[in-house]
Amino acid sequence: GSARPRVYQAVHGQAQPGCASDGEVIYAGNNQDKFGNLVIVKHPKGYLTAYAHNSEMIVKKGDKIKRGQPIAKVGITGDLGKGANAQKPQLYFSIRKDRIVVDPEKRLSK
Fold it and tell me: Which residue among 57, 84, 94, 103 is least enclosed by CB atoms within 10 Å?
């Protein structure tokens, strides 16, 4: 199978992830069982960022948001597996460019 670079980390339950870059919310909902409450932001130059497993979404579809602006509160929604952190608040974060998964650590370090 192909690698799917992402950040998937247990975090403090009151954490509010900030948007990686300026953009527009194109999805804020929970119709994706695996990801629970999911926010997807569209950015310039074909980039999308996804933030999943949120307990609460602070933004809604159509919102224009700025880099660092809180978009959600981390949570325990969706399929978190059965590991040691499965019942701890988590953030799933991923970046895509033109539908191709990008390693967040390489992209965000620029």
Answer: 84
What value, to the nearest 5°, has the Cα angle with vertex 68 and ends 76 and 109? 95
Inform me whether the pLDDT recorded for 103 exceeds 50.
yes
Residue with tokens 């929604």: 77
Contact criterion met (CB below 8 Å) for 40 and 26: yes
Strands (E), 22-107: 23-32, 36-43, 47-57, 64-65, 72-74, 90-97, 100-102
Give me the percent of the chain exceeding a pLDDT of 70: 79
Instruction: Determine the Cα angle at 72 with ends 81 and 22, to 5°.
Output: 115
pLDDT band at 78 (very low <50, low <70, confident <90, very high): confident
Look at phi and psi of residue 78 and say left if phi exceeds 0, alpha if psi is from -120 to 50, else beta: left
Query: What is d(CA 52, CA 60) in angstroms, rounded to the nearest whole number?
Result: 14
SS3 of 82, please?
coil
Q: How many CB atoms lie within 10 A of CB 71?
A: 23
